[in-house]
Design a protein that fits this description.
Blueprint: E1 13-14, H1 28-37, E2 45-49, H2 55-61, E3 70-74, H3 81-88
Parallel strand pairs: 1-2, 2-3
């Protein structure tokens, strides 16, 4: 019996959460590369971050091709005044 090597295309994926935040300076370029490589993924793929994005981060991220399966989430451990301000825009 052989293994199905295509299974990973059909399950949700969270990008770069094993070694800290996916939007840190060390990880952001790799995170963007992975997001771009998953644009034809069959299931949802996500980035979960606690990082406050800088203008430099935003300029890198705004050119990513968006899909209906891509989800970016902000993770809160507590709701501070700064968090509330960021969420209001």
């Amino acid at each position: 019996m052989g293994y199905n090597t295509e299974w990973y295309k059909d399950i949700p994926v969270s990008i770069n959460n094993a070694f800290g935040d996916p939007f840190t300076e060390v990880q952001i370029d790799d995170t963007i590369a992975k997001i771009n490589s998953l644009k034809n993924h069959n299931a949802p793929y996500s980035v979960i971050t606690k990082a406050v994005l800088t203008d430099e981060h935003y300029s890198k991220l705004k050119n990513i091709e968006k899909t209906d399966r891509m989800v970016v989430m902000y993770s809160l451990t507590g709701l501070t005044k700064e968090d509330i301000h960021l969420m209001k825009g």
